[in-house]
Amino acid sequence: MKKNIIISALFFSTTIFAQNKGLVANSESPYSKLQSVGLQDVKWTNGFWKEQFDVETKNTLPYMWDLYHNDSVSHAYKNFEIAAGLSKGVFKGPSFHDGDFYKIFEGMAAAYAVTKDKKLDAEMDEAIALFAKVQRKDGYIHTPVLIDERWGTLGPEEVKKQLGFEKYNMGHLMTAACIHYRATGKTNFLNIAKGVADYLYDFYKKASPELARNAICPSHYMGIVEMYRTVKDPKYLELANNLIDIRGTTNDGTDDNQDRIPFRLQTTAMGHAVRANYLYAGIADLYAETGEKKLLDNLESIWDDVAYRKMYITGGCGSLYDGVSPDGTSYDPTVVQKIHQAYGRPFQLPNATAHTETCANIGNVLWNWRMLQITGDAKYADVVELALYNSVLSGMDLEGEKFLYNNPLNVSNDLPFHQRWGNEREGYIALSNCCAPNVTRTIAEVGNYAYNLSKEGLYVNLYGSNSLNTKTLNGEILEVEQQTNYPWDGKITLKIVKAPKGEQAFFLRIPGWSQNAEIYVNNKKLNEKLVSESYFKINQKWKKGDVIELNLPMPVELMQANPLVEEVKNQVAVKRGPIVYCLESDQLPAKISVNDVALDLKSKFTTNPFTLNNRNLVSIDAEAVINSNNSWNEALYKPLSSKDATSVPVKLIPYFAWGNKGKGEMTVWMSH
Description:
The protein is α+β, with helices and mostly antiparallel strands. It contains 15 helices and 25 strands. It has helices at about 1-20, 50-65, 75-85, 95-115, 120-135, 145-150, 165-185, 190-205, 220-230, 235-245, 275-290, 295-310, 360-375, 380-390, 435-445; strands at about 35, 40-45, 270, 320-325, 340-345, 410, 450-455, 455-460, 465-470, 475-485, 490-500, 505-510, 520, 525, 535-540, 545-550, 555-560, 570-575, 580-585, 595-600, 605-610, 615-625, 645-655, 665, 670. The strands form 4 sheets. Strands 6, 17, 18, 19, 20, 21, 22, 23, 24 and 25 form a 10-stranded antiparallel sheet that branches. A 7-stranded antiparallel sheet has the order 2-9-10-11-16-13-14. Strands 1-7-8-12-15 form a 5-stranded mixed sheet. The longest helix has 20 residues, at about 50-65. The N and C termini lie far apart (about 80 Å). The relative contact order is 0.10.
């Protein structure tokens, strides 16, 4: 009898593997409307994302892999070797170093799914063999602790404390292992992840709420749900529920860590923006499995708070370097809760001091992606697109080998203070390099965001030239070629290569920024009204060679902020399609600051293609006004004057491309 059960379980697991090959394995998630296509199903063919994927595979991944093996710069891989007993030493680096390496590994696996590069496969197997040597018999793996256990050395005290990124590292391990399994079909890393998941299940079953607070940047919420989806062990779903239940039940919780109060009492975004967005993404995963209405209600309320009151025009999250929690604060001024790298109060969106950590912006993508899976609502896809093109890509230079920790919207030479993290991209950000591995894995995985499957048909979420070769939920082959110069041009064509014999529905995203969109099928215009921020359904029988054409007009738009955003009152930003633009000081006369410029709203705003560091971009040319009396030396206020104002041409470039020409000033918002 047991033998039959084992055989059935193995068969079931194989079936699940065949169905679940995307970033999230939600094909059997009962409360998920949309499902992932396979990691290998989408291949960029030319244009924007092909250029970015080439940078990823040719530059970023090799650079990061070598960097994290170079123990004179990063000690991450060396820590694994020491923990495995291959060499003697002490733990070095930040306590989230393990997780950094797992993120790079995940990027390798996602790239391998598309490229089938044997070198990537061999490098991953070598790393997995090392992980196996490190892992304790009970499944535990966290090099700061295991190095101490093996060698009797005492590492930095902070790695021993409850907020030491232990579970964060394990979460990234589990996620990376699931991606590796789907990309390769191998179980060597997944078996290690099962050991980790089993350890966490046993730990949380007996851990006190105080011990369970070891949950900052809770990537393990996403990780454990993904393990449940992958291996179908119900105790992992039980653990995911327990992780939510146990939060906010201690007396020492903080808004910074989103655990001052239980999640089911939270209706606004609070605290550290990376931790927050990771938490919200993990809870969205849990909702997809359980359908608990309270979870979704709170997520939607928090989303409203972020999207309408706390998110930058770039999709960036987390406005504050440091501050005090507005809610977790006593009337006694000596008893306050500090917050850092955090969401602030509603409409508190400074520009020069914006923190907007790249990891938080990636967390925004992860969260909104999961909300899209649950609901099929285009507003979430709009945020995914906004963040990807702006506040995520800005975290990396155009050549893919230098990175930003924070992503300000204004850089001024005259600011009389030094911020902890600079405004120039670096090859390695000492003690805070978590964002570089995160953007590395994210860019490798963008192709999996492009499409979704549902019982109704194919959802087209992101536009870019690619080939899609997938199977519908009925198991029928669907092949489509997408051709476009998006985001520089709004014309998108979908050419049918192979479609099911019966009717097949396509759901085309009409972005929230678009107006007057048009759709043609085989050159015949559809007369139905196209609604912005929605999906438009086209359902019919298709034959090879049929073409769907979507035209999204892309005028230059001048954007204003809610007047409650004091920092940009009476200022404008420039946006075209999904791309936010900025002005750099190299476009101005000598000794003129970007803060001295007033944009002429009557400009023609012409677009022009240009290249920068071998990347094809589009600029916006406009006119600006500069007042000759622009000195603020020993002046805090002075009379407004328009005398001797001169007009100068300016070239605005995509925000994500700022800082690629050397040190200088930059601004997104401009007076007028």
